[in-house]
Amino acid sequence: MEVYIDDTLVKSQRAADHIDHLKDCFFILNNYGMKLNPTKCTSGDFLGYIVTQRGIEANPKQITAFVDLPSPKNSREVQRLSGRIAAINRFLSRSTNKCLPFYDLLRGNKKFIWNERCEEAFEQLKRYLTTPPMLAKPDKGDTLYLYVAVSNAAVSIVLVKDERGEQRPIFYTRQRMTNAETQYSTLEKMALAVMTSARKLRPYFQSHWIVILTNLPLRTIMQNSNHSGRLSKWAIELSKYDVMFQSKPAEKSQVLADFHIKLTPKLEQDLKLPNATWILHVDGSSSNKGSGIGIHLQSPTGELLQQSFRLGFKASNNKAEYESLIAGLRLAQAIQEKRIQAYCDSQLVANQFSGDYDAKNERMDAYLKVVQDLIKKFESFQLTKIPRDENVCADALAVLGSSLRDQVKRTIPIQQIDKPSITLSHDEIDQVVAIDTTDAMDTNGSLPQNKWEAPRLKTKSANYVLIDGRLHRWTTAKVLLTCLGIEEASLAMAETHEGAAGNLLGGRVLPLKVKSLCFYWPTMIADCEAYRRKCDKCQRHASNIHSPTEILRTMTAAYPFMRWVMDIIGPMPSSRQRKYALIMTDYFTKHGLPYEIVTDNGSQFISSNFCCFLERWGIRLNTATPHYTQCNGQAEATNKMILDGIKKRLDLKKGHWADELDGVLWSHRTTLQSATGQTPFSLAYGGEAMAPAEVSVTSLRRAKMPPNEELNREMLFDALDAIE
To answer: Are 519 and 697 within 8 A, CB to CB?
Structure first.
């Protein structure tokens, strides 16, 4: 028993049980004193429909009342007619098209005119209702089939089930299109019909598999979320249902024959493909953030396929342009299209493809051969160069792929191409390796046979020189740097970064310090940055970057070598009975005592003993006031640098900080400072210190050092005598 507001329905699966179910219903009504109206008690009549074992039929009384209805004579009678049509709409196939003349009479303040077109539609509707269809009831687990039809003004849908080889209708529905929707293409109107059915027949879509029968390529646009605008929204909305697409079979029922009509000439013309050529727009983008390509493929019917790729390798702008064209051709080949009209804004790619430009570069020639091999699989292919402002869609997709690194969900998915589309015989990155013997290098002046490699080698070789079988490079300042191989470069980076004199330097300072040791290899900046990113201690103890709240002010001394700044760090974990570190920053004093020492207002610095000590040596004491603490900023900066270095070196072994303090200070003294462009050691002593990395990997300075220790010591003394 089911109750619908003030209606009660008693139904049974078997006829023999129906009497017992009615007895139970009446017993419940008697217990609660409820009464029924005998005139409204019917068998099979429920909610205006006749429900029988055969199916659901329209109420004969409603059909008879409609057939006997005379032609309307005013707008009010047309409204009554529309109300009666709405009561039996479920049984009317394509009711909007059949009743369109009636609805037009009610739109706007039109004068009522019942013309021959209205009378013909009225009589046609009466003839249709003399034999109304019988609707079927779907069972659990049934697969339902959906037919859609479109006209110039409305979309119509019928949901059917297959019962012993015969297709029986379950529900008819329709929707009149708005003025904007009438401008859709035929495929978009068919997609609108599918979405209308999914919204109006949601209970059926949620509980059954739905097979959409059509001969149009609806699956291409309804199961692809790469489209933009309404098609993409519809595809995402439809993806939550179990929907399949199949070709329309032969008509198995006269009821469906009434539903199927041919498209109007206007809609048929919309489906015709006068030019079956797909339009391909491609573009590539290369920047300091990366490289990306964009593909914009449009079908003859207006459907769009948009894709953005991020290149997982370093590529120039010309290489990115070629990669975009190759990826676009592969996409067109994947969807089995044979006629392509391609557009790009690269003058080099377009002219090399047409033959106006020669592909002099080996990589460009390899890319051109890949493109020529791909176009052989198409019936027709044309490539045209267009201005950049006419290629904005592909350009935006390329910039999107090159700029964004994260892979969050988007309407336009961004994928990655890890390897180039070409394979060259030699490595793409030129490397300079160490030469230990002259036999390993061709020094007779011969050049490669390749005409492009020969001038390139001559240009590069002008910056290199071979000294004692070892390759060196001249810098722009005419300083000789020793060229390292892969293993030696790794050793030099490790020793400089975290060795005895290392301080776990950042990716920008590390290559400068390696270069100051007179070492060189072509990719040293990128390698040092990658090495720092892999360092666990650098990531754990990296300092936070804080923007200054006001413009920084430089504190300068009146004359060089006159001032020290001093501060205390601590307390720290006990290390060899030490808990504090006294830090003094010397402003490049070579000899003698400072004129002035700057400290904070700590009690240990303003005590009488300390003041007497300074007075005895003729040193003036200045303290930083709370109102103007910037005067002791150099001491605070030094404290921060030393603490960061100790943290990175010790990690969890905090009790050994005293053992590592000398290494931290030595690393700071031998590291280039951005303020002066020199190391503190070189400013104080006039030359760079010998680094531990030069012991592991022989540098030019160490190789040319006099082997006689006594002679070297005498030369050092001579240099000290010449200081003054």
So the answer is: yes
Amino acid at 713: R
> In this structure, are 179 and 230 located in the same domain?
yes
Q: CATH number for the domain including 213?
A: 3.10.20.370
Q: Are residues 247 and 302 in the same domain?
A: no
Residues 385, 451 within the same domain? no
Measure the CA–CA gap between 699 and 481, rounded to whole angstroms. Answer: 8
Over the chain, what is the mean pLDDT?
Answer: 75
32 and 158: one domain?
no
3-state SS record for 350-402 = HHHHHCCCCCCCHHHHHHHHHHHHHHCCCCEEEEEECCHHHCHHHHHHHHHHH
Q: Mark whether 262 and 283 lie in a shared domain.
A: no
Q: Is 331 exposed, middle or buried (0-12, 13-18, 19+ CB in 10 A)?
A: middle
The boundaries of the domain holding residue 155 are 75-270
Strand order in the sheet with 56-58: 45-46, 49-51, 56-58
3-class DSSP state of 29 = helix
Considering only CA atoms, which of 449, 447, 442, 467 is closest in space to residue 458?
447
278, 303 contact by CB (below 8 A)? no
Give me the number of domains the chain comprises.
Answer: 5
Does any domain span residue 70? no
**Shortest CA distance to 74 belongs to which of 110, 121, 124?**
110
For residue 295, the cross-strand partners are: 282, 307
| Residue 652 identity (one-letter amino acid) | L
For the chain, what is the radius of gyration of the CA atoms? 44
Residue 417 to residue 327: CA distance in whole angstroms: 9
> 419-449: buried (b, 16+ CB within 10 Å) or exposed (e) per residue?
ebbbeeeeeeeeebbbbeeeeeeeeeeeeee
d(CA 572, CA 582): 12
Task: Give exposure, 649-661, as e/b (b: 16+ Cβ within 10 Å).
Answer: bbeeeeeebbebb
Cα gap 207→332, rounded to integer Å? 37
Give SS3 for 240: coil
Asked, for residue 719, whether it belongs to a domain, the answer is no
- Shortest CA distance to 143 belongs to which of 159, 127, 124, 121? 159
Tell me if residue 4 falls in helix, strand or coil: strand
pLDDT in tens, 294-326: 888 888 766 778 888 888 888 888 888 899 899
Residue 520 confidence (pLDDT): 86
Domain boundary among 270, 301, 320: 270
Please state the φ and ψ torsions of residue 495, each to the nearest 5 degrees.
-70, -40
Task: Identify the burial level of 491 via C-beta atoms within 10 angstroms of its C-beta, where 0-12 means exposed, 13-18 middle and 19 or more buried.
Answer: middle
Specify if 509 maps to a domain.
Answer: yes
Strands (E), 580-682: 581-586, 596-599, 620-623
Q: What is the pLDDT of residues 650-691, one digit of tens each?
A: 665 566 777 777 777 777 777 777 767 777 777 777 777 777
Does 265 share its domain with 302? no
Among the candidates 487, 507, 540, a domain finishes at 540
Tokens in use for 414?
């961004």
What is d(CA 304, CA 229) in angstroms, rounded to the nearest whole number? 10
Distance CA 113, CA 119 (A): 11
Q: What is the CATH number of the domain that holds 455?
A: 1.10.340.70
Check if the beta carbon of residue 121 is closer than 8 Å to that of residue 98: yes
pLDDT digits (tens, 9 = 90+) for 691-700: 777 766 766 6
* Residue 154, pLDDT above cutoff 70: yes
Cβ(144)–Cβ(213) below 8 Å: no
- 333 and 445 share one domain: no
User: How far, in Å, CA of 504 to CA of 642, rounded?
Assistant: 12
Looking up residue 342, the CATH number of its domain turns out to be 3.30.420.10
**574 domain residue, yes or no:** yes
Residue 544 CA to residue 644 CA, distance in Å, equals 11
* Same domain membership, residue 568 and residue 651: yes
